[in-house]
Write a structure and sequence with these properties.
- The chain is mostly beta strands and 220 residues long.
- It has four domains: 1-76, Omega-AgatoxinV (Irregular); 81-113, Complement Module, domain 1 (Ribbon); 118-146, no CATH class; 171-208, Thrombospondin type-1 (TSP1) repeat (TSP-1 type 1 repeat, Single Sheet), CATH 2.20.100.10.
- It contains two helices and 14 strands.
- The protein has helices at residues 2-6, 147-155; strands spanning 26-28, 35-37, 44-45, 57-60, 70-74, 80-83, 86-89, 93-97, 100-105, 108-113, 129-132, 141-144, 182-189, 198-205.
- The strands form six sheets. A three-stranded antiparallel sheet has the order 3-5-4, with no helix packed on it. Strands 8-9-10 form a three-stranded antiparallel sheet, with no helix packed on it. It has a two-stranded antiparallel ribbon with strand order 1-2.
- The longest helix has 9 residues, at 147-155.
Length: 220
């Protein structure tokens, strides 16, 4: 009876299919006639405007009054989470990008970084370490930059790459990470070539560490 009321034969569809938002595929409507954008989690739905079955969604009329549209929900009422237009099931582990991994839990999601956030301090064989993006690799890596390259990069900071003068800004240097001996301090500053905020580090020493006690001389 519903098909007889809503579905016309032959089909009359727009010549060009609609452009769907990200995460919403093109599917056939409830009449199996025209291509439409599948409804996503939480969006209204009815017989014609179907939900995205590929993500396990069905049109839920349990909370709708008579004659009104339903809402796209999981078939088993299981909670999920939506990230960048895509719906993930409860308990599913996914990677929105190669740099983080997330876990869908209780309608939300928790993420952990997959790239190491280590700090490389200057050493005699690498006095100017710098972290850079490597083409073809997801995580940035540390490289050893020669002093002449470092000076050239600093000189470019006032080059015409920036359309307007950079208003320098930065936080105070943090306390030294070590209470004694060599450590490092951090700050956030835009004093770089592209005038972008970045975390900067420098070596520091609050005080020298006390010398270990001398061993007792052997008794002859």
């Amino acid at each position: 009876q519903v098909c007889a009321q809503l579905c016309r034969r032959p089909c009359y569809c727009p010549w060009v299919p609609p452009r769907c938002p990200r995460g919403s595929p093109l599917v056939l409507d409830g009449c199996g006639c025209c291509k439409i954008c599948a409804r996503r989690l939480g969006e209204p739905c009815d017989f014609l405007h179907v939900c995205d079955h590929g993500q396990g969604l069905v049109c839920d009329y349990s909370s709708a009054s008579a004659g009104t549209a339903g809402t796209c929900n999981f078939e088993d009422d299981e909670e999920g989470c939506e990230v960048n237009g895509r719906v993930y099931r409860e308990g599913e582990v996914f990677q929105p990008s190669c740099k983080i991994q997330c876990h869908c839990l209780d309608g939300g999601f928790n993420c952990i970084p997959l790239c190491r956030e280590d700090v490389r301090l200057p050493t005699p064989d690498c006095p100017y370490p710098r972290r850079v993006e490597i083409p073809g690799k997801c995580c940035p890596e540390w490289i050893c930059e020669a002093q002449d390259q470092l000076l050239l990069r600093d000189a470019r900071a006032v080059s015409p790459l920036l359309r307007q003068p950079c208003q320098e800004w930065g936080t105070e240097w943090s306390a030294c990470s070590a209470t004694c001996g060599l450590g490092f301090a951090t700050r956030v500053s835009n004093q770089n070539r592209f005038c972008r905020l970045e975390t900067q580090r420098r070596l520091c020493m609050a005080r020298p560490c006390p010398a270990p006690p001398a061993a007792f001389p052997a008794v002859s």
